[in-house]
Here is the input.
Amino acid sequence: MKKINTMTYFYLQILFLEVVSKIIITGSFLNIGLLYLVVFTIPFSLILFLITRLFKEKINKVITIVLSLVVTIYFGFQYVFFTLFSVPFSFNTIGLANAVVEFSDIIKDTLTSKILYIILYMLPFLILIALIFLKKISFKQNKKEQNITLLLLLLFSLTADYIYLMPNKEKFDSPYNLFTSIDDSISIINQFGLLTYTEIDVNRVLFGYETEIIEELEEPPQIEEENPSIITYKKNVTEIDFSSLIDNENNETLKEMHNYFNNASATYQNEYTGMFKGKNLIFILAEGFNEVAVDEVRTPTLYKLIHEGFNFTNFYSPVFLSTTGGEFQATTGLVPTQEILKNWKSLAPNMSYGLGNSFSSIGYNVRSFHNWTYTYYQRDKTMKTLGFNNYMGCGNGMEKLLKCDWLPSDIEMMEKTAPMYQMEQPFVTYYVTVSGHSPYVSGANIVKKHYETVKDLNMSKNIKNYLSSQVELDKALEVLINSLQASGTLDNTVIALVGDHYPYTLSIDEMNEAASYQKDSIVEVNHSNFILWNNNMEPITIDKVGSQIDVLPTLLNLFGVSYDSRLIVGKDILSTYEGLAIFSNRSWVTDKGTYFYSSKKFVPREEEEVNDEYINRINKRVSNAFTMSKLIIDNNYYDKVVPK
Here is the structure.
């Protein structure tokens, strides 16, 4: 057998790892991205080949082993990070990678339960060791003219890659725009591979990039009112003189933003406007909560709140960077990406419409509680940005009230904190629970605590463990309601609850064991509940599509809080504005069907027909949702336009 050179080895190693990562991270394989991946892998392997041919054979051998190991570790790290946080690692969120250390049990569980995947990532490196042992790989030093040839080949390859992007450059969602200006890590990996994504990520972190506001085809249609001649509703807007702002603005980006929001369609008030005006609000972001956990027998309180309050039957909790992404969506009404979340935490912009700020501005007492490390996800900063100056977690007070060892009890948090605010009416209290967090293993204390409730289910171990952990949340809600009842504040209090994300450490097959219908792993796995309940209300079913970013404007409308609906990307689910749920890879769901961004495939609902113009319009609306969310944070936009 003829010896292979390190160019061949590195190309095959990277291509293998890229394909594995593409399948695992994006859930796709056979598409145009596979061709791009084959081409974009060439420059990386050429660079590594050059480095491993500069010295004498022994040194080249050591360099080859080290570089191959580094490549293996990096791809493996990205896999573990994706498993833990649902997104690939970005250098925008290095602080999050440091925080992984706090979840050593979860990392250990990931490494042991996914051992076959870990071995798969190590396979090319093990093959290299075998080739060296069998003396079937060459480490011969290149001659000077060979290196010059390789450098020219590298330059040609990079130029060819760029030319490869040129077709359809003008199209807003073209590969060129994905490469240069669209912040979508999953789609970039799907199209170009993990190493190219890393190259793009590093470049954007160091030098930034411009996002383009796209002109939408038409104003999103408002659903017709049943009796428009009898009932006329006002728009949820405030007095903002955009014309004056545009005339007096020298910054082109801000001028574009003023123009965009001036022409944006506002939502109308509706029959539910002010329904909860003056009432208290307890808002809960529940770790790992998903609709599959709801059962009339095992979780009767969750079941009761869903079916005796507003029942949103087409609600989604899309995964955007684990808990911090879910929190950002629900409390700001904006779409998160890793860069947006980084800037939200580092820039601390004025979030006038943040959950705490919106209510404190009209005289509410606002508090927030979390039964885990108070600095995790930099909540010591972001809670203040949202308007929660009275924030307590483990490390700044919560440890005096309960046992903060992993996993802490949601029940205990409710028992200890509920009496602290119930006499401060009107109040808004924001809870971030943690008992439903992975790992869903038999040894977890919360799982063991409630395992009797699930032990007889005909399901696999992991999904039963998950369902057991959610019983803790249910019982915590029971404790909370009983406390409100005892203090005489139950009738005057609204409870809102959403999950931060579905339990993505479970496989789609495990999720489907407990689901009422077969879910896909991209969109429907995110289908969940938005609990909105008051003890005195009649049940109301809402079938319109909605998601996490719609939670805040829905609450503002229900509580009669003045806000400008043009300035929040999410929309009041109870309004006549068309429903839309947006996912991290830019797939989406409307009342007419589901669009899968990676495959560019639209699946209509029964009896619905749409044309390409409709799909193009929603795609542009989705693109602008990402762009405007970024620009609002980066430019501290609310500080410039929201009336004080």
